[in-house]
Amino acid sequence: MLSAATMLSSATLRTGLLAALLILPYSAGAHDFWIEPESFHPAPGVRVPLRFYVGQNFSGESIPHFPDRIVRFVSAGPAGEQRLPGVLGDDPAGTLVPAVPGLYVVGLHTKPEEVVFDSAAEFEQYLAAEGLERNIDLQRMRARDNRKIRETYFRCAKSLVATGRPASGDNDKALGLPLELIADTNPYLLGKRQKLTLRLLHKGQPLEGALVVLSGKSAPLSKLRERTGRDGRAHFLLPRRDVWLATAVHMVPAPIFASEDWNSLWASLTFELR
Which secondary structure element, helix H or strand E, spans residue 21, and what is its range? Predict the structure, then answer.
């Protein structure tokens, strides 16, 4: 039988390893971050565990609650916005208890993490892969010798949980995240052959030309991709009933006196179409 000290050491090691996943570079293949509730359609009053995931292709490791890495963790529902509490090391990282029927919007904004790219070629490959090609020319203008490139990134994750029978007034809400995906079309009221409209806001304003990617859990490699228009909107015809993950990223040059070169914001939104 393992001693208490050994068990504690193993738990501490696991927590440390999972925390490290939050700051893995792009080359390690762990760059998407999302919230996944245990149920997207709970009954009123039922406790819904909320897990944070980091990974790719809608598959990854769940991350324990680290309060010192969180700026804001809330839910907005029929009774307004409420802070979601959490305990250091807890996995699931939080719990939602929807008291009455309605749509509950769960949102998370994390503090910045840093990743370092050893070469301009590596960084440009990363930009192209994430739909950030418009940053390549500016990066080349800003490049200095063979200096490493530092990027600071923030997570802005949301999830939509529907309790009870959906009503026409139940809509996704803007939580004021720095980069935010908003479902203009409530996916729980989506009709057959009706398109889902997602809107992307940067600091509250529509973001044009950003790549929005949708992945379904049952076939995550068959992705849907659309660029946002001038109004920040992208439109998708979802091919099947599934749990869906929408993602988008926006990158801007860091302030001139900052230690990093670039700041990026990563938005995600999860929901279930059934």
Answer: helix 4-21
